Amino acid sequence: MSARGGRERPPDDWQEYLHSLAVFGMRPGLARVAGLLSRLGHPERTLRAIHVVGTNGKSSTTRYAAAILSASGLRSGAYLSPHISGFNERVLVDGRPVTAAALGAAVELVRAESLRLPPELGPVTQFEVLTVAAFVALRSAGVEAAVIEAGLGGRLDATNVLAAPVVVLTTIGLEHTDVLGDTRELIFAEKAAVIGRGATVVFGPLDGLEAAAEEACARVGAHACLLGRDILVAGEPARFSVALAGERFADLSVPSPARYQTVNAGLAVAACRMLLGGLDGRAVRRALAATAVPGRLQIAAHEPLLLADGAHNPDGVAALVEALAGLERPAPRVGVFAIMADKAVETMLAALVPLVGTVVATQASEARSLTASQLAQRIGQVDRGAPPTPGRTVLTEPDPHVAVALAQRLAGRRGSVLVAGSLYLLSDLADLLEGGGAGSGRVY
After folding, report:
1. Domain interval for residue 68
2. CA-based, 20 to 30 A from 226: which of 258, 303, 332, 405?
3. Does 263 share its domain with 310?
4. Could you give the CA distance from residue 369 to residue 356 in angstroms, rounded to a whole number?
């Protein structure tokens, strides 16, 4: 039975199969994932795991932690979402994506077992299949320790089948409020539900939810490590330190101008320290300095400067604005924006639009994306409610590649282009952001 309804010939290709599935589905629960893992011999139990949940910073923290584990002598793995150019980017072994063939073989195993699940459980979702396939692929690769990023929420997320001894909760912001709740307290409760008995939990900036964190840990006998109290991060991306548990890791750096990445790296250091019981400072320095995060202040080209960032909610956009304040962006400045319809569109636009003089409104291939014309209309509404900006121009181009080309022409060789608003937009532009356009393709 296809996720789109009706009986169809089963897709031949594993990627076609994944695309045929609903991403998250309409019937929440962990029964399908638990059933698949049981039938496949519980690959998730072969891993020493760090489970990463939160609103923003999950992917960066996951990448940094996996790199530290690898530098510490372990065969490490990571599970990330979403991908930018290919499904196999979601599963890393020692910092490198598994091959498409390896992930495809794992997906086919999961696909076969999914046909044997009781019909009353309902159809599997794309994220469920990918999550179970990731565990299978990591086991097949001989991974010893893995960092697993949650998808949506926590309590009913497909990754919440781990008995992870270490959990990281990065940040809490208003996102997916129709599913997770419309207050930070409700969203926190959904994400904190992954905390298991006796776990150590590394909390990022909680902004008033510290008491809730302590209470959530106390209920299950977990140990809370709070940023600013138990974990201290100080300095700038080029040189910062992390102090915890009586140890200090100094002279750390990350290849990014974004100050928020020092916090994500600090959470990763703390999580790995708690998992392993100790860390070598030289290994930590080497790991962080070599770990770039795609889609986070990525410099994809020069002349004009082409920046891409996956900020896709108000907190992420606020972090982007702060990071850009310390980065020289030559004028004229042009923005290429796409935003999902279920996001806090006006709040995001109120922060994004003032960053540029000209906006090219576009749209992502994801069905939830606002159309280019809808986004342009929303930009007009935001502009009408704000002080007038002389010379602001809003153009409409539905094709993201054409939109970027237009923005580059408008910026000229001496200007700059900012692509932001959606990770799906970055996925659609993957060929360009990986060096398809003129420039270095470096990631910062």
Report:
1. 14-289
2. 258
3. no
4. 21
